[in-house]
Design a protein that fits this description.
This protein is an alpha/beta fold. Helix content is 50%, strand content 7%. It has 16 helices and 6 strands. The strands form 2 sheets. A 4-stranded parallel beta sheet has the order 1-2-5-6. Strands 3-4 form a two-stranded parallel ribbon. Helix 4 links the parallel strand 1 and strand 2. The two termini are 22 Å apart.
C-alpha cells in the first residue's frame, strides 16, 4: 500500500477499529458495551472519518482507495460495497467475505499446504501422532505422559474442555505456520518458521511420530518465548472473560465478533482423509467456548442466525459492488472463504488475484528479493488495476 501511495502521489491514512488498540469507546469490555462492536459500526466509523477528514484536509473530492488484509480486507471490500460514494475502489487482501459457522475448510487447506511445501509423508506422520494421542488421552496414564511430553503448564485433565484445548493448541502450531508461511514479516521484528521446516522435523526428526510432534511444539514454544504449553480450558475462559483492555489485547474483542457475527469456527470435523489432526476439537467445543465466555444466549442457534445475517448483509461470495480487487494466496487457509477465480461473482468489476504458493496477506508485505514470481506478478497486476481505478470516472 505504501509503495503504491508513493507511486501515485497519494496521502496514506491508517484508521484504527473501534474497541481495538487505543480506540476505547468505553473503559471496560463488558458485554453490554460490546454490543457496539460490529463490522457494521466499524464501516460507519470509516464513513464518518472519511467525511470529516475529506473536509478537514480539503480532499473530499479526491479518489479514495481502501486497503486491508484479513478481516480488515473484508472491511475494505464492504466499505466499497456499502459506501461507494465515499470510496472509489478497494483492495481486499485475504478477505474472508463469507461468514461460516463450521469452517472445516481451514484444516483442509492446511493439509494441502503441508503436502505442497512439505510432503504427503509429513501429513501421514502428523496423522500417526494425533491418532496415538486420541488412543491414550482418555486415560489418566495417557494424560500424564502427554503432559510431560508437551510440557503443559498444568496437568492435562480428562474433561472435554482441556482435551479439546490441548488438541487444538497442537494443531494450531501447524495452522499458524501455514497461515503465515514465508510471509516477509522480518521488518516487523517477528520471527517465524515455515512449513518446510516443521515438516522436516516430522519426517526426519528423532523419535517416533509423537515425539516429533512434541518437538515441533517445543521449537515453536521457544520461538514465542513460552516456557510451557497452556492447555487449561478454564484459564482460557477466564482470560477471555476479562473486561480489561490491558489483559484482553484484542482477544476478547475478536472472540466477541466471532461469536456474534462471523463464527469462522475452525473445528476438526473434516474427515481424516481431509485433515490429519484428529477429531478432538469438534464444532460443539468451539460453540461451548462462546457460551462459556459470553453467556447462554451465544449458542449454536444464535451463532448460526448471526452468520446468516452477516452473509445477507454483505452478500458473502455473491458480494456486489465494483472496482474491488481480491488478492488471495493458495497456501492461506482463509482463501477458502474468499473471492477466487472460479467464484461466480456478481460483476466483472470484482477482480480476484490468485497467488499460487503464497500465504496470508503476502502481497501486503514489503517486497523482497526472495518473493515468488507469482507474488511479483500479483503485485504488478494490483498496481495496474489501482492505476485503472484512479483513471476511471
Amino acid at each position: 500500500m505504501m509503495e503504491l501511495a508513493e507511486k501515485y502521489g497519494a496521502m496514506a491514512v491508517l484508521v484504527e477499529h473501534r474497541f481495538y488498540g487505543e480506540s476505547h469507546p468505553f473503559t471496560l469490555l463488558a458485554l453490554e458495551n460490546l454490543r457496539y462492536l460490529s463490522s457494521e459500526q466499524a464501516l460507519a466509523d470509516l464513513a464518518n472519518f472519511r467525511t470529516w477528514f475529506g473536509k478537514e484536509h480539503n480532499v473530499a473530492e479526491a479518489k479514495w482507495i481502501s486497503f486491508g488484509g484479513s478481516y480488515p480486507g473484508a472491511l475494505s471490500a464492504w466499505f466499497r460495497l456499502k459506501y461507494p460514494h465515499l470510496v472509489h475502489g478497494a483492495v481486499a487482501s485475504s478477505a474472508p467475505v463469507q461468514a461460516k459457522v463450521n469452517f472445516v475448510e481451514y484444516l483442509e487447506v492446511v493439509q494441502r499446504s503441508m503436502s505442497f511445501y512439505g510432503t504427503d509423508e509429513c501429513v501421514d506422520i502428523v496423522k500417526q501422532a494425533t491418532s496415538f494421542i486420541t488412543s491414550i488421552i482418555h486415560t489418566e496414564e495417557g494424560r500424564t505422559k502427554l503432559s510431560a511430553m508437551f510440557k503443559t503448564c498444568k496437568p492435562l485433565q480428562g474433561d472435554i474442555g482441556d482435551i479439546s484445548t490441548f488438541a487444538n493448541t497442537l494443531a494450531g502450531n501447524f495452522m499458524g505456520v501455514v497461515q503465515y508461511n514465508r510471509d516477509n514479516v522480518a521488518f516487523e521484528g517477528r520471527k517465524t518458521l515455515n512449513v518446510s521446516y516443521i515438516c522436516n522435523i516430522m519426517v526426519h526428526g528423532e523419535g517416533d511420530p509423537l515425539e516429533r510432534y512434541a518437538t515441533v511444539n517445543t521449537v515453536l514454544g521457544k520461538l514465542n518465548n513460552a516456557t510451557c504449553t497452556d492447555v487449561a480450558y478454564n484459564d482460557t475462559v477466564s482470560a477471555l472473560r476479562s473486561t480489561s483492555y490491558s489483559t484482553a489485547e484484542g482477544g476478547r474483542q475478536w472472540m466477541y465478533q466471532v461469536c456474534s457475527e462471523f463464527a469462522f469456527l475452525q473445528s476438526s470435523d473434516a474427515t481424516s482423509s481431509q485433515q490429519p489432526f484428529g477429531h478432538l476439537f469438534p464444532l460443539s467445543t468451539q460453540v461451548q467456548l462462546c457460551t462459556d465466555v459470553f453467556g447462554p444466549l451465544f449458542d449454536l442457534e444464535t451463532i448460526t442466525a448471526s452468520v446468516e445475517w452477516s452473509n445477507a448483509m454483505y452478500g458473502a461470495l455473491m458480494i456486489g459492488g465494483t472496482r474491488i480487487i481480491f488478492p488471495n494466496g493458495s497456501i492461506d487457509p482463509w482463501h477458502a472463504l474468499g473471492v477466487l477465480p472460479d467464484t461466480d461473482v456478481s460483476s466483472p468489476a470484482l477482480i480476484p488475484v490468485y497467488i499460487n504458493g503464497t500465504a496470508h496477506c503476502a502481497n501486503m508485505y514489503p517486497t523482497s528479493s526472495t518473493d515468488l514470481p507469482s507474488l511479483v506478478a500479483a503485485r504488478q497486476k494490483i498496481d495496474m488495476l489501482v492505476g485503472e481505478f484512479l483513471s476511471a470516472v
